[in-house]
Backbone:
Protein backbone atom coordinates (compact mmCIF):
# COMPACT_ATOMS: atom_id res chain seq x y z
CA UNK A 1 0.00 0.00 0.00
CA UNK A 2 1.36 3.45 -0.90
CA UNK A 3 0.62 6.21 1.60
CA UNK A 4 2.41 9.47 0.90
CA UNK A 5 2.81 12.75 2.74
CA UNK A 6 1.08 15.74 1.12
CA UNK A 7 2.73 19.02 2.22
CA UNK A 8 0.24 21.86 1.74
CA UNK A 9 -0.58 25.38 2.88
CA UNK A 10 -2.30 24.16 6.06
CA UNK A 11 0.25 21.53 7.11
CA UNK A 12 0.62 17.96 5.97
CA UNK A 13 -1.70 14.98 5.35
CA UNK A 14 -1.03 11.28 4.81
CA UNK A 15 -2.88 10.16 1.72
CA UNK A 16 -3.40 7.10 -0.47
CA UNK A 17 -5.30 6.62 -3.71
CA UNK A 18 -7.91 3.98 -4.31
CA UNK A 19 -7.57 1.23 -5.51
CA UNK A 20 -4.59 0.61 -3.28
CA UNK A 21 -1.46 -0.80 -4.88
CA UNK A 22 1.95 -1.58 -3.49
CA UNK A 23 4.46 0.81 -5.11
CA UNK A 24 1.71 2.85 -6.77
CA UNK A 25 3.62 5.47 -8.82
CA UNK A 26 0.64 7.85 -8.67
CA UNK A 27 -0.13 10.15 -5.75
CA UNK A 28 -3.51 11.10 -4.32
CA UNK A 29 -3.19 14.85 -5.04
CA UNK A 30 -1.78 17.13 -7.72
CA UNK A 31 -0.52 20.68 -8.16
CA UNK A 32 -4.08 22.00 -8.60
CA UNK A 33 -4.96 20.74 -5.10
CA UNK A 34 -1.84 22.45 -3.71
CA UNK A 35 -2.74 25.70 -5.47
CA UNK A 36 -6.38 25.68 -4.37
CA UNK A 37 -5.33 25.22 -0.72
CA UNK A 38 -2.65 27.89 -0.97
CA UNK A 39 -5.10 30.34 -2.55
CA UNK A 40 -7.69 29.65 0.14
CA UNK A 41 -5.11 30.29 2.87
CA UNK A 42 -4.07 33.59 1.24
CA UNK A 43 -7.70 34.65 0.71
CA UNK A 44 -8.98 33.70 4.15
CA UNK A 45 -6.33 33.74 6.91
CA UNK A 46 -9.02 32.58 9.40
CA UNK A 47 -10.49 29.11 8.73
CA UNK A 48 -13.87 29.59 6.99
CA UNK A 49 -16.92 28.40 8.93
CA UNK A 50 -18.15 26.05 6.20
CA UNK A 51 -16.14 24.78 3.24
CA UNK A 52 -17.69 22.92 0.33
CA UNK A 53 -15.23 20.80 -1.65
CA UNK A 54 -16.39 19.62 -5.10
CA UNK A 55 -15.01 16.72 -7.18
CA UNK A 56 -12.18 15.91 -4.75
CA UNK A 57 -10.74 12.68 -6.22
CA UNK A 58 -9.26 11.04 -3.11
CA UNK A 59 -10.00 13.52 -0.32
CA UNK A 60 -6.78 15.59 -0.59
CA UNK A 61 -8.72 18.87 -0.33
CA UNK A 62 -11.30 17.84 2.26
CA UNK A 63 -8.71 16.27 4.57
CA UNK A 64 -6.41 19.31 4.37
CA UNK A 65 -8.81 22.20 4.68
CA UNK A 66 -9.38 23.66 8.17
CA UNK A 67 -13.03 24.62 8.64
CA UNK A 68 -15.82 24.53 11.18
CA UNK A 69 -17.80 22.26 8.87
CA UNK A 70 -16.63 20.46 5.74
CA UNK A 71 -18.80 19.11 2.96
CA UNK A 72 -17.65 17.00 0.01
CA UNK A 73 -19.82 16.77 -3.12
CA UNK A 74 -18.97 14.34 -5.91
CA UNK A 75 -20.27 11.61 -8.19
CA UNK A 76 -17.79 8.91 -7.21
CA UNK A 77 -18.17 6.45 -4.37
CA UNK A 78 -14.51 5.56 -4.86
CA UNK A 79 -13.77 9.18 -3.94
CA UNK A 80 -16.01 8.83 -0.88
CA UNK A 81 -14.27 5.62 0.23
CA UNK A 82 -10.83 7.17 -0.34
CA UNK A 83 -11.88 10.24 1.67
CA UNK A 84 -13.10 8.04 4.53
CA UNK A 85 -9.81 6.11 4.60
CA UNK A 86 -7.67 9.23 4.28
CA UNK A 87 -9.57 10.96 7.10
CA UNK A 88 -8.90 7.93 9.29
CA UNK A 89 -5.19 7.98 8.33
CA UNK A 90 -5.10 11.54 9.61
CA UNK A 91 -7.14 10.81 12.77
CA UNK A 92 -10.13 12.77 11.51
CA UNK A 93 -12.78 10.04 11.28
CA UNK A 94 -16.31 11.14 10.24
CA UNK A 95 -15.63 14.86 10.13
CA UNK A 96 -16.80 15.57 6.56
CA UNK A 97 -20.42 15.48 5.36
CA UNK A 98 -20.72 13.60 2.08
CA UNK A 99 -23.14 14.80 -0.65
CA UNK A 100 -23.63 12.46 -3.66
CA UNK A 101 -24.03 14.03 -7.12
CA UNK A 102 -27.64 12.86 -7.25
CA UNK A 103 -28.31 15.53 -4.60
CA UNK A 104 -27.47 19.20 -4.14
CA UNK A 105 -25.84 20.92 -1.17
CA UNK A 106 -28.35 22.82 0.93
CA UNK A 107 -26.16 24.72 3.39
CA UNK A 108 -24.62 27.98 2.06
CA UNK A 109 -20.83 27.57 2.19
CA UNK A 110 -18.40 30.32 3.25
CA UNK A 111 -15.84 28.93 0.79
CA UNK A 112 -15.97 26.60 -2.21
CA UNK A 113 -12.98 24.61 -3.47
CA UNK A 114 -14.01 23.28 -6.86
CA UNK A 115 -12.01 20.88 -8.99
CA UNK A 116 -13.34 21.40 -12.51
CA UNK A 117 -14.82 18.04 -13.59
CA UNK A 118 -14.16 16.29 -16.88
CA UNK A 119 -17.82 16.37 -17.88
CA UNK A 120 -19.00 19.83 -19.00
CA UNK A 121 -22.61 18.80 -18.32
CA UNK A 122 -21.67 17.94 -14.72
CA UNK A 123 -19.93 21.32 -14.38
CA UNK A 124 -23.08 23.06 -15.61
CA UNK A 125 -25.27 21.01 -13.29
CA UNK A 126 -23.04 21.83 -10.30
CA UNK A 127 -23.08 25.49 -11.28
CA UNK A 128 -26.87 25.53 -11.43
CA UNK A 129 -27.23 23.78 -8.07
CA UNK A 130 -24.57 25.88 -6.39
CA UNK A 131 -25.66 29.31 -7.60
CA UNK A 132 -28.62 29.77 -5.19
CA UNK A 133 -26.32 29.12 -2.19
CA UNK A 134 -23.71 31.74 -3.07
CA UNK A 135 -23.47 35.36 -1.94
CA UNK A 136 -20.98 38.06 -2.99
CA UNK A 137 -19.07 37.22 0.22
CA UNK A 138 -18.60 33.55 -0.64
CA UNK A 139 -15.04 32.62 -1.56
CA UNK A 140 -15.31 30.59 -4.78
CA UNK A 141 -12.07 29.05 -6.06
CA UNK A 142 -12.19 26.77 -9.08
CA UNK A 143 -9.18 25.04 -10.54
CA UNK A 144 -7.47 22.16 -12.22
CA UNK A 145 -4.44 21.07 -14.17
CA UNK A 146 -4.00 23.25 -17.29
CA UNK A 147 -4.26 20.32 -19.71
CA UNK A 148 -7.66 19.37 -18.25
CA UNK A 149 -9.31 22.78 -17.99
CA UNK A 150 -11.92 23.41 -20.70
CA UNK A 151 -10.94 26.14 -23.17
CA UNK A 152 -14.25 27.93 -22.55
CA UNK A 153 -14.04 27.87 -18.74
CA UNK A 154 -14.57 31.65 -18.58
CA UNK A 155 -17.79 31.36 -20.54
CA UNK A 156 -18.94 28.35 -18.48
CA UNK A 157 -18.42 30.03 -15.10
CA UNK A 158 -19.58 33.49 -16.23
CA UNK A 159 -23.20 32.96 -15.03
CA UNK A 160 -21.90 33.15 -11.42
CA UNK A 161 -20.11 36.48 -11.76
CA UNK A 162 -16.74 37.84 -12.83
CA UNK A 163 -13.73 35.60 -13.07
CA UNK A 164 -10.10 36.31 -12.17
CA UNK A 165 -7.39 33.95 -13.43
CA UNK A 166 -4.75 33.80 -10.69
CA UNK A 167 -1.06 33.18 -11.43
CA UNK A 168 -0.46 29.53 -12.22
CA UNK A 169 1.98 27.09 -10.66
CA UNK A 170 3.31 23.70 -11.77
CA UNK A 171 0.97 23.61 -14.80
CA UNK A 172 -2.13 24.26 -12.68
CA UNK A 173 -4.42 27.27 -12.48
CA UNK A 174 -7.03 28.55 -10.05
CA UNK A 175 -9.80 31.00 -10.90
CA UNK A 176 -11.44 33.23 -8.30
CA UNK A 177 -15.12 33.95 -8.91
CA UNK A 178 -16.53 37.25 -7.64
CA UNK A 179 -20.17 36.30 -7.20
CA UNK A 180 -22.56 38.77 -8.82
CA UNK A 181 -25.53 39.58 -6.53
CA UNK A 182 -27.67 40.43 -9.59
CA UNK A 183 -27.01 37.16 -11.42
CA UNK A 184 -29.84 35.05 -12.81
CA UNK A 185 -29.48 31.48 -11.55
CA UNK A 186 -28.53 29.24 -14.47
CA UNK A 187 -30.77 26.31 -15.37
CA UNK A 188 -29.58 22.73 -15.05
CA UNK A 189 -28.67 20.95 -18.30
CA UNK A 190 -31.51 18.73 -19.42
CA UNK A 191 -31.07 14.97 -19.14
CA UNK A 192 -30.01 13.55 -22.51
CA UNK A 193 -32.46 11.12 -24.12
CA UNK A 194 -30.96 8.20 -26.03
CA UNK A 195 -33.03 6.07 -28.40
CA UNK A 196 -31.63 2.77 -29.63
CA UNK A 197 -34.32 1.52 -32.04
CA UNK A 198 -32.48 -1.74 -32.90
CA UNK A 199 -32.94 -2.82 -29.29
CA UNK A 200 -36.18 -0.92 -28.73
CA UNK A 201 -34.60 1.15 -25.96
CA UNK A 202 -35.39 4.65 -24.73
CA UNK A 203 -32.73 5.66 -22.21
CA UNK A 204 -32.04 8.79 -20.17
CA UNK A 205 -28.62 10.08 -19.14
CA UNK A 206 -27.97 12.43 -16.22
CA UNK A 207 -25.12 14.94 -16.43
CA UNK A 208 -22.23 12.63 -15.57
CA UNK A 209 -23.25 9.52 -17.49
CA UNK A 210 -20.70 7.87 -19.76
CA UNK A 211 -21.53 8.33 -23.46
CA UNK A 212 -24.50 10.47 -22.53
CA UNK A 213 -26.94 10.93 -25.40
CA UNK A 214 -25.33 8.31 -27.65
CA UNK A 215 -24.70 4.58 -27.48
CA UNK A 216 -21.00 3.87 -26.94
CA UNK A 217 -19.59 2.13 -30.01
CA UNK A 218 -17.92 -0.51 -27.85
CA UNK A 219 -21.24 -1.19 -26.11
CA UNK A 220 -22.94 -1.45 -29.50
CA UNK A 221 -20.41 -4.03 -30.67
CA UNK A 222 -20.82 -5.91 -27.38
CA UNK A 223 -24.63 -5.98 -27.69
CA UNK A 224 -24.22 -7.55 -31.13
CA UNK A 225 -22.65 -10.59 -29.44
CA UNK A 226 -25.39 -11.01 -26.81
CA UNK A 227 -27.20 -13.80 -28.72
CA UNK A 228 -24.15 -15.94 -27.79
CA UNK A 229 -24.32 -15.22 -24.03
CA UNK A 230 -24.48 -18.34 -21.88
CA UNK A 231 -27.76 -18.86 -19.98
CA UNK A 232 -27.46 -17.48 -16.45
CA UNK A 233 -29.54 -17.20 -13.29
CA UNK A 234 -27.55 -14.32 -11.83
CA UNK A 235 -26.03 -11.61 -14.03
CA UNK A 236 -23.92 -8.57 -13.06
CA UNK A 237 -23.63 -5.45 -15.22
CA UNK A 238 -20.32 -4.18 -13.84
CA UNK A 239 -19.71 -0.47 -14.56
CA UNK A 240 -23.31 -0.22 -15.75
CA UNK A 241 -23.44 3.47 -16.80
CA UNK A 242 -26.99 3.99 -18.08
CA UNK A 243 -27.66 0.24 -17.65
CA UNK A 244 -27.81 -0.60 -21.35
CA UNK A 245 -25.97 -3.94 -21.12
CA UNK A 246 -27.91 -5.29 -18.16
CA UNK A 247 -31.25 -4.15 -19.57
CA UNK A 248 -30.69 -5.94 -22.89
CA UNK A 249 -29.43 -9.04 -21.01
CA UNK A 250 -32.57 -8.97 -18.86
CA UNK A 251 -34.78 -8.82 -21.95
CA UNK A 252 -32.89 -11.78 -23.39
CA UNK A 253 -32.96 -13.80 -20.16
CA UNK A 254 -36.18 -12.76 -18.39
CA UNK A 255 -35.83 -15.26 -15.54
CA UNK A 256 -32.35 -14.03 -14.53
CA UNK A 257 -31.68 -11.74 -11.55
CA UNK A 258 -29.67 -8.80 -12.90
CA UNK A 259 -27.56 -6.59 -10.62
CA UNK A 260 -26.20 -3.22 -11.79
CA UNK A 261 -23.01 -1.76 -10.25
CA UNK A 262 -21.27 1.54 -10.84
CA UNK A 263 -18.94 3.98 -9.08
CA UNK A 264 -21.18 6.87 -10.15
CA UNK A 265 -24.25 7.72 -8.08
CA UNK A 266 -25.85 9.27 -11.15
CA UNK A 267 -25.16 6.16 -13.27
CA UNK A 268 -26.84 3.80 -10.83
CA UNK A 269 -29.84 6.12 -10.47
CA UNK A 270 -30.14 6.30 -14.28
CA UNK A 271 -29.76 2.55 -14.69
CA UNK A 272 -32.65 2.04 -12.27
CA UNK A 273 -34.83 4.61 -14.00
CA UNK A 274 -33.98 3.13 -17.42
CA UNK A 275 -34.64 -0.40 -16.19
CA UNK A 276 -38.07 0.62 -14.90
CA UNK A 277 -39.03 2.42 -18.09
CA UNK A 278 -37.70 -0.24 -20.50
CA UNK A 279 -38.42 -3.47 -18.64
CA UNK A 280 -41.25 -2.51 -16.31
CA UNK A 281 -42.77 -4.78 -13.68
CA UNK A 282 -42.10 -8.47 -14.15
CA UNK A 283 -42.62 -11.67 -12.26
CA UNK A 284 -38.92 -12.73 -12.12
CA UNK A 285 -36.37 -11.95 -9.40
CA UNK A 286 -35.99 -8.27 -8.55
CA UNK A 287 -33.03 -6.40 -10.05
CA UNK A 288 -30.44 -4.76 -7.77
CA UNK A 289 -28.84 -1.33 -8.20
CA UNK A 290 -25.64 -0.76 -6.25
CA UNK A 291 -23.23 2.16 -6.04
CA UNK A 292 -19.84 0.63 -5.23
CA UNK A 293 -16.19 0.70 -6.17
CA UNK A 294 -16.66 -2.30 -8.45
CA UNK A 295 -17.76 -5.26 -6.36
CA UNK A 296 -15.72 -4.23 -3.30
CA UNK A 297 -18.61 -4.78 -0.88
CA UNK A 298 -20.52 -7.53 -2.70
CA UNK A 299 -21.52 -10.38 -0.38
CA UNK A 300 -24.44 -11.91 -2.31
CA UNK A 301 -24.70 -15.22 -4.16
CA UNK A 302 -22.12 -15.87 -6.91
CA UNK A 303 -22.86 -14.66 -10.43
CA UNK A 304 -23.06 -16.95 -13.45
CA UNK A 305 -22.30 -14.13 -15.82
CA UNK A 306 -20.58 -10.75 -15.43
CA UNK A 307 -20.82 -8.23 -18.30
CA UNK A 308 -18.28 -5.42 -18.36
CA UNK A 309 -17.38 -2.54 -20.65
CA UNK A 310 -14.58 -1.31 -18.37
CA UNK A 311 -13.44 2.28 -17.88
CA UNK A 312 -10.01 2.97 -19.37
CA UNK A 313 -9.29 5.95 -17.17
CA UNK A 314 -9.74 7.09 -13.58
CA UNK A 315 -10.76 10.72 -13.68
CA UNK A 316 -8.26 12.18 -16.14
CA UNK A 317 -5.72 9.40 -15.55
CA UNK A 318 -5.71 6.98 -18.47
CA UNK A 319 -4.85 3.39 -17.57
CA UNK A 320 -6.17 -0.08 -16.98
CA UNK A 321 -5.89 -0.08 -13.18
CA UNK A 322 -9.67 0.03 -12.67
CA UNK A 323 -10.32 -2.56 -15.39
CA UNK A 324 -7.88 -4.97 -13.74
CA UNK A 325 -9.51 -4.38 -10.37
CA UNK A 326 -12.94 -5.12 -11.88
CA UNK A 327 -11.64 -8.33 -13.51
CA UNK A 328 -10.21 -9.54 -10.17
CA UNK A 329 -13.46 -8.76 -8.37
CA UNK A 330 -15.51 -10.44 -11.11
CA UNK A 331 -13.44 -13.60 -10.78
CA UNK A 332 -13.90 -13.60 -7.00
CA UNK A 333 -17.69 -13.30 -7.28
CA UNK A 334 -18.29 -15.74 -10.16
CA UNK A 335 -19.59 -19.25 -9.56
CA UNK A 336 -17.37 -22.09 -10.75
CA UNK A 337 -18.17 -22.37 -14.47
CA UNK A 338 -19.43 -18.76 -14.57
CA UNK A 339 -18.09 -16.36 -17.20
CA UNK A 340 -16.87 -12.78 -17.40
CA UNK A 341 -17.62 -11.16 -20.78
CA UNK A 342 -15.66 -8.01 -21.56
CA UNK A 343 -15.59 -5.57 -24.45
CA UNK A 344 -12.51 -3.44 -24.98
CA UNK A 345 -10.43 -1.58 -27.47
CA UNK A 346 -8.27 -4.14 -29.20
CA UNK A 347 -5.06 -2.26 -28.33
CA UNK A 348 -5.75 -2.45 -24.57
CA UNK A 349 -4.74 -6.10 -24.53
CA UNK A 350 -7.28 -7.21 -21.88
CA UNK A 351 -6.81 -10.81 -23.00
CA UNK A 352 -3.39 -10.86 -21.29
CA UNK A 353 -4.81 -9.78 -17.91
CA UNK A 354 -7.77 -12.17 -18.24
CA UNK A 355 -5.63 -15.15 -19.19
CA UNK A 356 -3.31 -14.48 -16.26
CA UNK A 357 -6.22 -14.19 -13.84
CA UNK A 358 -8.56 -16.91 -15.08
CA UNK A 359 -6.09 -19.25 -16.79
CA UNK A 360 -8.20 -18.98 -19.96
CA UNK A 361 -9.70 -16.40 -22.29
CA UNK A 362 -11.41 -16.80 -25.64
CA UNK A 363 -12.19 -14.20 -28.27
CA UNK A 364 -15.92 -14.18 -28.90
CA UNK A 365 -15.78 -11.58 -31.67
CA UNK A 366 -13.58 -8.83 -32.98
CA UNK A 367 -13.50 -5.99 -35.47
CA UNK A 368 -10.61 -3.65 -36.31
CA UNK A 369 -11.31 -1.56 -33.18
CA UNK A 370 -12.90 -3.80 -30.52
CA UNK A 371 -12.79 -7.32 -29.14
CA UNK A 372 -15.30 -9.17 -27.00
CA UNK A 373 -13.55 -11.60 -24.68
CA UNK A 374 -14.91 -14.31 -22.40
CA UNK A 375 -13.06 -15.83 -19.44
CA UNK A 376 -14.43 -18.76 -17.47
CA UNK A 377 -13.93 -19.32 -13.76
CA UNK A 378 -12.56 -22.79 -13.36
CA UNK A 379 -12.10 -24.69 -10.12
CA UNK A 380 -8.33 -24.32 -10.33
CA UNK A 381 -6.58 -21.35 -11.87
CA UNK A 382 -3.49 -21.89 -13.92
CA UNK A 383 -1.19 -18.85 -13.59
CA UNK A 384 1.43 -17.79 -16.06
C1 LIG B 1 -16.99 2.48 -20.42
S1 LIG B 1 -18.25 2.92 -19.27
C2 LIG B 1 -19.48 1.67 -19.63
C3 LIG B 1 -20.89 2.09 -19.33
C4 LIG B 1 -21.97 1.14 -19.87
N1 LIG B 1 -21.82 -0.17 -19.28
C5 LIG B 1 -21.87 1.05 -21.38
O1 LIG B 1 -21.45 0.00 -21.86
O2 LIG B 1 -22.21 2.03 -22.06
C6 LIG B 1 -17.53 2.41 -17.76
C7 LIG B 1 -18.37 2.63 -16.53
O3 LIG B 1 -17.60 2.18 -15.40
C8 LIG B 1 -17.87 3.05 -14.32
N2 LIG B 1 -16.78 2.94 -13.34
C9 LIG B 1 -15.61 3.60 -13.28
N3 LIG B 1 -14.89 3.21 -12.23
C10 LIG B 1 -15.63 2.27 -11.59
C11 LIG B 1 -15.44 1.52 -10.40
N4 LIG B 1 -14.34 1.64 -9.66
N5 LIG B 1 -16.43 0.68 -10.04
C12 LIG B 1 -17.56 0.55 -10.78
N6 LIG B 1 -17.79 1.25 -11.89
C13 LIG B 1 -16.84 2.09 -12.30
C14 LIG B 1 -18.02 4.41 -14.95
O4 LIG B 1 -18.75 5.28 -14.09
C15 LIG B 1 -18.76 4.07 -16.23
O5 LIG B 1 -20.15 4.15 -16.06
Residues:
Amino acid sequence: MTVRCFEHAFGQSWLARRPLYANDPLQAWDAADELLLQTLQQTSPQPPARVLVINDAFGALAVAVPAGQRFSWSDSITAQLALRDNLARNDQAAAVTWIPATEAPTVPPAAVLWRIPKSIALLQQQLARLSPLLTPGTIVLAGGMDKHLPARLHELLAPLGSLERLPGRKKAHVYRVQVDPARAHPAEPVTAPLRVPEYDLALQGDANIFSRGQLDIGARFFLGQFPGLPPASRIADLGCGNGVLGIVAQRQQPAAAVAFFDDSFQAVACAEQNYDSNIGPRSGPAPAFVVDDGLSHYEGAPFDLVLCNPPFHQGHQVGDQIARQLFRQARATLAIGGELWVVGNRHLGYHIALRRLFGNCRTVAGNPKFVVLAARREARVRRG
Q: What stands out?
A: The longest strand covers residues 334-345. The pocket of S-adenosylmethionine is lined by residues 78, 210-211, 216, 219, 239-241, 244-245, 261-264, 267, 293-294, 309, 311, 322 (CB under 6 Å). The mean pLDDT is 94.
